[in-house]
Design a protein that fits this description.
14-stranded antiparallel β-sheet
C-alpha cells in the first residue's frame, strides 16, 4: 500500500479535482480530520496532477472536516516551468474551505548536496516504550500509526512544570509498505501540538493553524524519528519544529507549525484542583 491508498484519495473525471472521504480512521480522538492527513492528501493531489515531487508545501488550516463528509481538493497550476511547478490546492466540503495549500514541486539535477543537521543519538524503536493515549486509539488515525516514545513525559507526570521543549519519538505507518514519500511525512510531521503539551507540562496540546513541510532527501526506512522542538508559547499560541530522520540518519524533511494551545476537553489539571481547594 502507498500513501494514496492509505488515504483513499480518489481521482475524478477532472484531472485537477480529487476527493478524500473522511473516514473515522483518518480522524483524531476529537472526531475531525487529522491535519497531517489533510495536508498529505493535498500534497498527493498536487504531485499526481503536476507529475512532479513535492519540494515544500505549506498548509493553512481554516475549518474542520468530520467523518462521513467528503473533502474535495481542487488543484491550480500557477506556474509550470521546465523543472519547477508552483501550484496550490484548496480542500473544501461544499462551500466550506478546510485548508489551503501552496507548494513547489520539481527536481533539479545539480552536483551539490549535503546534510548538516544530524540525527541525535537515540535508542532504536524496539527499545522504546509505546506511546500512551488519553483515550483508546481504536477507530482513529492513532490506531493506524505506531509510535514509540524516546523522550517525553508520561501523562500522569504532567504537573504544570516546564520541560526543555524537546520531545522525541519514533513513528511509522505500518500499512504503507511502498516507502516514505512526502505525503507520508506530512502525516508524521503533525506533532508540534502534542509536544507543546509536553513542553508546558499540561494535559493538553492544541489545534494546528498551519504546517510547512520541507522535503530534503527520501530514502527507504521503516521508522521515522521525530525530533520535535517547541520554540515558544505566547499569547495562547505555540510554535515549533519537527525534524524527521530515517533510521540511517538521513534527514528526510522538516515540518514547522503554529497551533492554538488548549487543554484537553473537560480536563482540570491537578495543580488547578489544589488551587481551588486552597481558596475554598
Amino acid at each position: 500500500m502507498d500513501s494514496r491508498a492509505f488515504l483513499d484519495l480518489r481521482p475524478s473525471h477532472n484531472p485537477y479535482r480529487w476527493s478524500l472521504p473522511v473516514i473515522p480512521s483518518l480522524t483524531t480522538g476529537g472526531g475531525f480530520l487529522f491535519g497531517g492527513c489533510a495536508l498529505a492528501a493535498a500534497i498527493s493531489a498536487l504531485e499526481q496532477t503536476s507529475g512532479r515531487e513535492c519540494v515544500w508545501a505549506t498548509a493553512q488550516y481554516l475549518s474542520y472536516s468530520k467523518p462521513d463528509e467528503v473533502m474535495d481538493i481542487d488543484v491550480t497550476i500557477a506556474v509550470d516551468g521546465h523543472q519547477i511547478t508552483q501550484a496550490r490546492a484548496v480542500g473544501h466540503v461544499g462551500n466550506r474551505e478546510i485548508l489551503t495549500v501552496n507548494a513547489a514541486l520539481g527536481h533539479r539535477d545539480v552536483a551539490f548536496s549535503g546534510q548538516w543537521e544530524q540525527m541525535p543519538d537515540v535508542p532504536p524503536p524496539d527499545k522504546c516504550a509505546t506511546r500512551e493515549w488519553r483515550f483508546p486509539a481504536s477507530g482513529t488515525i492513532n490506531e493506524r500509526l505506531e509510535q514509540r516514545m524516546v523522550k517525553g513525559r508520561r501523562l500522569d507526570t504532567l504537573d504544570g512544570s516546564h520541560g526543555d521543549g524537546r520531545t522525541r519519538l519514533w513513528a511509522r505507518i505500518p500499512e504503507v509498505l511502498d516507502g516514505v514519500d512526502a505525503a507520508a511525512l506530512a502525516i508524521l510531521g503533525d506533532f508540534v501540538p502534542m509536544a507543546v503539551g509536553q513542553a508546558l507540562g499540561i494535559r493538553g496540546g492544541g489545534n494546528s493553524l498551519d504546517n510547512t513541510l520541507r522535503v530534503a532527501k527520501l530514502v527507504p526506512t521503516e521508522w521515522v524519528l521525530l525530533d520535535i522542538r517547541v520554540h515558544a508559547v505566547e499569547r495562547g499560541f505555540g510554535h515549533g519544529l519537527v525534524q524527521m530522520f530515517a533510521q540511517d540518519g538521513t534527514l528526510l524533511a522538516t515540518a514547522s507549525q503554529s497551533c492554538i494551545v488548549r487543554l484537553w476537553k473537560g480536563e482540570i489539571q491537578d495543580w488547578e484542583r489544589e488551587s481551588e481547594g486552597e481558596q475554598s
